[in-house]
Design goal:
Helix 9 crosses helix 10 (196-221), helix 18 packs parallel to helix 20 (425-457) and helix 19 (393-415) runs antiparallel to helix 20 (425-457). The chain has helices spanning 14-36, 43-54, 63-72, 79-102, 106-115, 119-122, 130-148, 153-173, 181-189, 196-221, 230-245, 256-262, 283-288, 299-311, 313-329, 346-349, 352-364, 372-386, 393-415, 425-457; strands at 40-41, 127-128. It is an all-alpha fold and 458 residues long. It has a two-stranded parallel ribbon.
């Protein structure tokens, strides 16, 4: 019996695949502008933009973002210029990753810009936050090196230098990224294969270089005002340890009513703001910043934190674990929309496409799509599957990007003071784009086995 011949589907020419990837990315950018322009001026962005206008900077918000905003502001004064920059970086990153992947798997390459439409990644582009700018900058850095990995040495090192500059820019935007930066930088410097020994050797020096970059840029070159953002962590931890021990850990005395609040209702694992700006517990920061006896930013608060952690390690660990679980699994802040009807966001609020997108967002927010923990698991799974293929270009890309995202999220176990979804945004982007590298890597690993099976059958 003669079996009927099945005609294979025509294979898309490489040029046609590349053109389709570019068209899809351009369409994605156009859709972003149509639905999200000119972006939402968040509370943080208000300060960043104001610092740019007054040309005065502190280290609580990134001065680099303010300066960059000042350079591009004439393009579309207000939020528009920063929104366009973030959207352009976003779609450029997915386009570059797609073009690189298409040389090994056309399907993976074409899927790259489509992954850019995944709601938790796409919808967050509406928010003018440094976390979004940081994530898109690192996305372009990784994708550009992936595309240039097999180029000639001069071109590859030029791209690598630009990519490392973007990594440094990301550190200056979000200093907590210094832990994850060495893992990504290892990939950027050696993109043809990911050597875990190199990553291990570079880890500590990379953290030191990141810290030096922050200190040199902020305090030696720009001479920004020291606002002690690290002490917000101390306040949060002291509040948490106070709650779990039932004993005051702050280096001040409180009234009976205040002490009762600190050990009962003040503690909120979602953010430290309950001790800062939210009544009735805002008395904490009012006292710590009281004129004539300022404790916030002083060695007294540092010593109190160190003493509380060393004397009550179990309470400290309970507090950090409680916060981190909330960060990973809680229904935390995603789109900051409580200022949508204010004049500064009037244009976005009148965008009917954005209103429809908000309705979709509200329906999806209760799902796991908007849980940082999901994206941490996805990134960790991709890193595990990419590990056997780490000596291939695609595998190195998938492992380097997803691995840095895992470490970035884990950093918040120790230094997080707020559980907003935006703090895991790099993990969302990394998980999506590293899928593009994982598919060709798995196919490459499967080739020897398929060849062996063919030889055996013959």
């Amino acid at each position: 019996m003669i079996e009927p011949q099945v005609k294979p589907l025509p294979r898309m020419a490489p040029l046609a695949a590349k053109m389709l990837i570019v068209v899809l990315a351009a369409a994605g950018f156009s859709l972003t502008v149509l639905t999200l322009y000119p972006g939402y001026i968040t509370n943080d962005a208000t300060f960043v933009y104001g610092f740019m206008k007054d040309w005065r900077f502190g280290d609580w918000q990134s001065p680099l973002m303010s300066m960059l905003w000042g350079l591009i502001d004439p393009i579309a004064p207000g939020p528009g210029s920063m929104f366009l920059l973030m959207a352009a970086l976003y779609w450029l990153g997915f386009a570059l990753a797609g073009l690189a992947a298409a040389r090994r798997s056309k399907a993976a390459g074409i899927a790259a810009p489509l992954l850019g439409l995944v709601p938790p990644a796409f919808m967050m582009l509406a928010m003018i936050w440094r976390d979004i700018l940081f994530g898109t900058a690192w996305l372009v850095a990784a994708a550009a090196v992936y595309l240039a990995a097999d180029a000639d040495r001069r071109a590859r090192w030029f791209v690598t230098a630009l990519a490392l500059a973007l990594v440094g820019f990301g550190i200056l935007l979000r200093p907590t990224a210094i832990i994850a930066a060495p893992l990504l930088a290892t990939y950027l410097i050696w993109p043809t294969a990911y050597d875990w020994k190199r990553a291990a050797v570079a880890f500590i020096p990379g953290i030191v270089l990141g810290y030096a970059l922050i200190h040199l840029t902020y305090y030696a070159i720009l001479d920004v005002k020291r606002e002690n953002p690290l002490h917000s962590l101390f306040v949060f931890d002291l509040g948490g340890i106070t709650y779990f021990t039932g004993e005051n850990q702050f280096p001040v005395s409180w009234s009976a009513g205040q002490a009762a609040l600190l050990t009962t209702t003040c503690y909120d694992p979602e953010y430290w703001d309950s001790y800062w700006t939210i009544p009735p517990c805002d008395f904490v920061m009012q006292r710590l910043e009281a004129p004539g006896d300022i404790i916030f930013g002083s060695p007294r608060l540092t010593r109190a934190w160190f003493g509380a952690v060393t004397h009550h390690p179990l309470a400290y660990l309970r507090h950090r674990a409680t916060f981190f679980w909330r960060f990973l699994a809680g229904s935390n802040l995603t789109l900051e929309l409580h200022r949508l009807d204010e004049p500064r966001n009037a244009r976005l609020s009148q965008n009917r496409y954005f209103r429809r997108l908000v309705a979709i967002h509200d329906a999806l927010k209760p799902t796991v799509l908007f849980r940082t923990g999901l994206w941490l698991l996805v990134a960790a799974a991709i890193a595990a599957f990419a590990w056997p293929g780490r000596e291939t270009m695609a595998g190195a890309f998938a492992l380097g990007v997803s691995g840095s995202a895992v470490f970035y999220v884990l950093t918040f176990l120790l230094v997080g003071v707020a559980a907003d979804f935006r703090y895991g945004y790099w993990c969302v982007l990394a998980a999506l784009v590293s899928m593009v590298g994982l598919v060709p890597a798995l196919r490459r690993l499967g080739e020897p086995q398929r060849k062996l099976m063919i030889r055996t059958s013959v």
